[in-house]
Amino acid sequence: MEWKSKLASLLLFVSIAYTLPAQTINRYIVFFKDKAGTSYSVSAPSQFLSEKAIVRRAKQGIMITEEDFPVNAAYINQVKATGAKTYFSSRWMNCVLVETSAAIIEQVRLLPTVSRIEFVAPNKKLSSARVKKERNIKETAIAAATISQLQQIGLTEMQADGYRGEGIHIAVFDSGFPGVNTASAFQHIFQEGRLIDSYDFITQSGNVFKYDEHGTEVLSVIGAYSENTFTGGAYKASFHLYVTEDVGSEYRVEEYNWLFAAERADSAGVDVI
């Protein structure tokens, strides 16, 4: 009878193996058909945009339209009710990012408010995700080299005329900003309260000072300052830092991460991305 026991165990294993793919958690974008029933109005933009964003729109001749309205909360709640976990939403594309199984996403597809669903990345990332350790960034700068680079694009003349980024809000989307919160060349930003906002769209974390150092390198070119050693191009600007690029993979979800960050930056009235 031992062979029967082994056969039963084998069948159980095969059964589990065939069941697992349906339970695998992946990432999807769920698009909605409309924004019916919204309580928002283009005549009251302060309900969904900051005052700075409204002023910038007026200055640049950008109309406020229904596309700027937030996604219908009732529609997102319907998706949640299926058991899918919802995360960031896009006003402009009227959609929401979800993490769920293939079985549940089919339930979502049947909702009357859903127009289509796009698979954007495999596996879990937004909930219970493994986070890379923070990296130590060494500070190195050669004054002559940085001055030469600024001169090549005319920034030394701009700074001499008093244009150093004052009053301008700049958003940087990248793969991480390790060391920005500790390196001395960035401390002037923190001391003067010019880090306005930051968010990690990769794992839904508020800590952007981790992951890959490319964002730190890019931000240093713009905003780092160390007297007689290093001068960033617009070091007096205010900054919004967002992690949108996952260096460990290449999936379409990163395009949506960029979109979510762009909408957050736009709502805050950022001048430059």
Give a description of the structure:
It is a single chain. The chain has helices at 2-23, 51-60, 73-81, 102-109, 143-152, 155-160, 187-191, 214-223, 253-268; strands at residues 25-32, 85-90, 95-101, 114-121, 169-174, 195-200, 225-226, 230-231, 238-243. It has 273 residues and is an alpha/beta fold. Strands 2-3-1-4 form a 4-stranded antiparallel beta sheet, sandwiched between helices. The protein has a 3-stranded parallel beta sheet with strand order 5-9-6, with helices on both faces. A two-stranded antiparallel ribbon has the order 7-8. It is globular.
Keyword list:
single chain; 273 residues; alpha/beta; three-stranded parallel sheet; 9 helices; 35% helix; 19% strand; globular
Secondary structure elements and pairings:
Layout: H1 2-23, E1 25-32, H2 51-60, H3 73-81, E2 85-90, E3 95-101, H4 102-109, E4 114-121, H5 143-152, H6 155-160, E5 169-174, H7 187-191, E6 195-200, H8 214-223, E7 225-226, E8 230-231, E9 238-243, H9 253-268
Parallel strand pairs: 5-9, 6-9
Antiparallel strand pairs: 1-3, 1-4, 2-3, 7-8
